[in-house]
Amino acid sequence: MKLRKYKTTDSDIISGWIVDERSLYQWSADRINKFPLSGEDINNCYLPMMQTGRFIPLTFIDQSDNIIGHLTIRYPIQSDRVVRFGFVIVAPVLRGKGYGKALLSAAIEYAKITLNAEIITLGVFANNDNAKYCYQSVGFKSVGKNEIYQMPLGEWECIEMSLSL
Length: 165
Known about the structure:
8 strands; alpha+beta; single chain; eight-stranded mixed beta sheet
């Protein structure tokens, strides 16, 4: 399994993993506010951010080049030493089998070696226990700066997490 540069054609597979509005908002927060989600919706969201040069979408593939996961890395502040993970997702049939941990481990290594990052941050909704536990399993810790977001499905608490490299 390895990370590779995201291709716009990946979006059709990734969008198929979003099966309901709850999973849409857990995955994208309010960045993509459209269900059902299409690959074009993902690409339209990503394009302006990719043009900044500070947003890196990556796809996780298996030995046969099948797409099994995806995430993005962006620079949330001016410092190139801090990066933020987002849009983290694993194919539904592979969840609970260690693929999320493998995806995150590969992304952490990429951030450390390729981007020379020193800190990785992310946000996870409190109602997404599986994701929260997965992040904790690779070393992310809550930093206690939780916020409440008004989502289309109600108020959701977002837990801010961080990992020092």
